[in-house]
């Protein structure tokens, strides 16, 4: 009986973690978190370059993580490598390398992880899309043979 109650208590907040982000959470992300990630992180952990196999430009990439594991654990900043890195808690894991973020920026990242790391849906361009007007997709036209 106690085991069942404990299990229910531990999983009670799971729907909240997987619920779609609210407009307020997305606004917080866009104004306080994304600018920090873009300015201080994505030059080395973005779409063009991924040091240590880590990308920080989508929620899926943050959850998947890189060579050291998941970058974030939604709801648990103390278990999130991203937070440990920006706090400079670990001698071997200090990011960004060019200096520590401000206390406010770190607090905003912590707050973001605590709220479940809301991230807007990223629309990935379809690599198979094609321009229907490209010459190679046009039907051949009969041409006159030059004399």
In short:
The protein is mainly α and 147 residues long. Helix content is 40%, strand content 0%.
Question: Which characteristics define this entry?
Answer:
elongated; mainly alpha; single chain; 0% strand; disordered N terminus; 147 residues
Quickly count the helices: 6
Q: How many angstroms separate the termini?
A: 95 Å
Low-confidence stretches: 3-17
Helix content: 40-55%
Taking all residues together, what is the mean pLDDT?
A: 82
Share in β-strands: under 5%
Q: Strand pairing plus helix content: what structural class?
A: mainly alpha
Overall geometry comes to elongated
Tell me the radius of gyration: 23 Å
Order of helices and strands: HHHHHH
What's the arrangement of secondary structure elements?
Layout: H1 2-11, H2 14-18, H3 23-41, H4 59-64, H5 81-87, H6 103-114
Explain what the structure shows:
This protein has 147 residues and is mostly helical. 40% of the residues lie in helices and 0% in strands. Helix 3 crosses helix 6.
